Amino acid sequence: MEEREVQPEVNIGVVGHVDHGKTTLVQALTGVWTARHSEELKRGMTIKLGYADGDIYKCTNCPEPDAYSPEPKCPRCPKGSEPVLQRRVSYVDAPGHEVLMATMLSGSSLVDGALLVIAANEPCPQPQTKEHFMALDIIGIRKLVVVQNKIDVVSKDQAMKNYQQIRKFLEGTWAEDAVVVPVSALHKANIDALLEAIQEEIPTPPRDLDSPPLMWIARSFDVNRPGTPPEKLVGGVVGGSLMRGKLRVGDKIEIRPGYAVRSGNKVEYVPLESEVVSLRFGNVEVEEAKPGGLVAVGTRLDPSVTKADALVGSVLGRPGELPPVYDQLTLEYHLLDRVVGFRGGEMKMAPLRRGEVLMMTIGTNITIGMVVDLKKDEMTVKLQRPAVAWKGARVAFSRRIQGRWRLAGWGVVKN
Ligand SMILES: Nc1nc2c(ncn2[C@@H]2O[C@H](COP(=O)(O)OP(=O)(O)OP(=O)(O)O)[C@@H](O)[C@H]2O)c(=O)[nH]1
Ligand SMILES: [Mg+2]
Ligand SMILES: [Mg+2]
Ligand SMILES: [Zn+2]
């Protein structure tokens, strides 16, 4: 197989209000049900970031959008059609539940574009429809397709009414002209038109392949089954997406801030050094990884340091080439005008206060931070958990409002 057929070239976030059908849509696009953890299956909700790769094929015989399919066969052509692979896409499935907003934000830092899933059988916008939409803006994602889902459970009139609500919601925003594609994720209806929209609206961005590799870690695992004999144990695995550069099997790597070591109530972070022993996209092993797609990096690390997402929020690169780790960040910040994301309307955002505790999302790193210094457009935040950052990096922050962390604004790192 050619390399381009293995490594996805673009990452697309799937966001939107709880239960609007994000995970079902990812399954329609990839054949994969991303919820794997028993708690997720039991509660029918996404809790951790999920991801799955899917293909976009186009039949050379058929008109658009019929020509598009996630599978290498054309449902409309009898024998003899040869659909051509257009792109392989990594879909990052975000949780929609309001308490998991930080996870949604950390997932958004990995993607190049987004599908905003809106269920046609509820009034639009729902609280997290608004909050996720705003988060895309804050993180700087401007490639968007709106997916009007569940059209199988509404009448044509209801679907039209809901479509008008969606258009009204987008009116006057950066996404005013966004394409809205009606689908039924459950029945895999109109997925061809969605693939066409993805091809047109979410191009693969240019990639920086020459800089040293840099990857946000989004998942980390111990892949050994309990009871594996010691000689068969494999090293820890970390998953994430390369922001830039290339990574090859055999490369020496460093992970920062690294592994948390607790003694009493003190926590120290220990940077880790290891080597890339394998690289995998889905089930396919590759020798080299570039930006695009979520890659699983096999290492020689003791799996006990990677298990249970212990390294999420750290950054992986080559030894000595990582940006610095900070305990404190100075940000030029912007506060949203209004608090969104809860039922019963919106309210005006109060100014920040010195001493206030915020939830910071720095790439995939989610940490509590305290505002220790505050000027007009600038704040300094002391982080509970140190973060790799660099001048110009974009950071989102949430505030505790009415009992929940609500998206409150963003900042640009000045350190
Ligand atoms: N009728 C119908 N039901 C759907 C459709 N898409 C999803 N559902 C159902 O809606 C429910 C929620 O779907 P999920 O895919 O888990 O929704 P989600 O957005 O991933 O939810 P969270 O991860 O909890 O935010 C499930 O019962 C799905 O079967 C659709 O197109 N039509
Ligand atoms: Mg659900
Ligand atoms: Mg889900
Ligand atoms: Zn065809």
> How many DSSP helices?
7
- CATH class of the largest domain reads Alpha Beta
Shape: globular
Q: In what order do the strands lie side by side in the largest sheet?
A: 12-11-17-8-9-16-13-14
Compute the separation of the termini in Å.
45 Å
CATH fourth-tier homologous superfamily of the largest domain: P-loop containing nucleotide triphosphate hydrolases
What gyration radius follows from the Cα positions, in whole Å? 22 Å
Q: What level of helicity do the residues show?
A: 10-25%
CATH fold annotation of the largest domain: Rossmann fold
Biggest beta sheet attributes: 8 strands, antiparallel
Name the CATH architecture of the largest domain.
Answer: 3-Layer(aba) Sandwich
What is the residue-averaged pLDDT? 94
Domain Tr-type G: 7-206
Keywords: GTP-binding, Hydrolase, Initiation factor, Magnesium, Metal-binding, Nucleotide-binding, Protein biosynthesis, RNA-binding, Zinc
GO molecular function: GTP binding; GTPase activity; metal ion binding; translation elongation factor activity; translation initiation factor activity; tRNA binding
EC number: 3.6.5.3
For this entry, give a set of tags.
single chain, 415 residues, alpha+beta, Elongation Factor Tu (Ef-tu), domain 3, 3 domains, 7 helices, binds guanosine-5'-triphosphate, binds magnesium ion, binds zinc ion, GTPase activity, Small_GTP-bd, hydrolase
